Amino acid sequence: MDINQIGVAIAGLSLIGSAVTFVRGEIRARNQKDFERVQHELNEQLLARERELDANMKSADLSANLIKVDKFSYRVRVFNRGATAAKNVRLEVEEGSELIDSRFLKSMFPYEKLDKHQKVDVRSNVIFSKKDKHILKIIWDDDSGNNKRSTVYLSI
After folding, report:
1. Is the peptide bond before 110 cis (omega within 30 degrees of 0)?
2. Pairing of strands 86-93, 62-70
3. Is the pLDDT of residue 125 over 70?
4. Mean pLDDT of the chain
5. What does the buried/exposed string (b/e) look like for 80-92 if buried means 16 or more CB atoms within 10 Å of the residue's CB?
6. Which of 4, 59, 93, 152 is 20 to 30 A from 50, comparing alpha carbons?
7. With the C-alpha atoms ordered 84, 89, 94, 100, is the resulting torsion angle positive or negative?
C-alpha cells in the first residue's frame, strides 16, 4: 500500500464521518422542532385551561333540589355552588305546574343576591300537584354576564 492509497482511505473515512455527523445533526434538528411544536401545543392548552378557570371564578352555578321536610311537606331548595355571588335570581315554573304558588313566587323573587354556597328554600305545593316531574328554570346575573340560565328537572 502506498501513501496515496492511505491518503485516499483517510479522506474517504473523513467523508463518511462528516456524512454521519451531518445526518445525526439533521435528526437532532428535526427532533428539536417536534419538541418545540409539542411544547407550544402544551402551552396553548395550559393557557386555555387558565382562561377557563378564570372565567369559572367569575361565574355562579345555580341549581335546585326538591327537599322533603316531613310526611306531606316539600321545599324547593335553590343553591349556588359557583365561585361567586348570583344577583337578581329569578325562577320560572313551567305552565300548568303547581310546584310553587305563583303569588308566593312573585313575592319572594327576584332574589337580590345568592352568595357562594348559600341556599334559599321555597315552599312547595307538591302534595297538590298532579305531575310527578316538574321543570324549573333558574335565571341569574353574575360577574361573567347577565341572564345566565339553568334548567332543572325535579321529580317527586
Report:
1. yes
2. unpaired
3. yes
4. 84
5. bebbbbbbbbebe
6. 152
7. positive
* Grid coordinates given for 130: 298532579
Write the CB contacts of 88 (distance below 8 Å, at least 6 apart in sequence).
110, 111, 112, 140, 141
> What are the angstrom distances between the C-alpha of 146 and each of 56, 65, 69, 137?
14, 23, 33, 15
Over residues 107-123, mean pLDDT: 86
User: Using one digit for the tens of pLDDT, what is the confidence trace for 27-73?
Assistant: 998 989 989 999 999 999 999 998 887 776 778 889 898 888 887 77
- Exposure pattern of 34-54 as b/e (b: 16+ CB <10 Å)? eeeeeeeeeeeeeeeeeeeee
Is 67 buried (19+), middle (13-18) or exposed (0-12) by CB count in 10 A? middle
Closest CA to 56 of 81, 37, 28, 19: 81
